Amino acid sequence: AALYSVYAPYGLTYDAANDKLYYRGELVRSFLDVLEWDGTYTNNGQLGGARRQLGDPTGTVDVEAVRDYQNGNQLTGVKLR
């Protein structure tokens, strides 16, 4: 639960009892946070590097973290993908 608490100010909450994420009350289908970008891209064009992912196939929204990679990988928000 502590891992996901940093996203709460941006509307993303973690339900530890069910291991699910919610964005503004909606169940998250996929969540991606590239914690440290290594300067590469994956085959599908996403940033490469250390990442955190969680989701539920029955969810309704896809969410990704927004980070400032020029300024210490600082988390600056979350957005719908």
Topology:
Blueprint: E1 12-15, E2 20-23, E3 26-41, E4 47-54, E5 61-68, E6 74-80
Parallel strand pairs: 3-5
Antiparallel strand pairs: 1-2, 2-3, 3-4, 5-6
What does this protein structure show overall?
This protein is mainly beta. The chain is 0% helix and 58% strand. The protein is built from no helices and six strands. Strands 1, 2, 3, 4, 5 and 6 form a six-stranded mixed sheet that branches.
The count of helical stretches stands at: 0
Q: What pattern of helices and strands is seen along the backbone?
A: EEEEEE
Mean pLDDT: 90
What is the number of beta strands?
6
The helical percent reads under 10%
Question: Can you summarize this structure?
Answer:
Helices cover 0% and strands 58% of the residues. The chain has strands at 12-15, 20-23, 26-41, 47-54, 61-68, 74-80.
Spell out the key features of this protein:
81 residues, mainly beta, six-stranded mixed sheet, 0% helix, 58% strand, globular
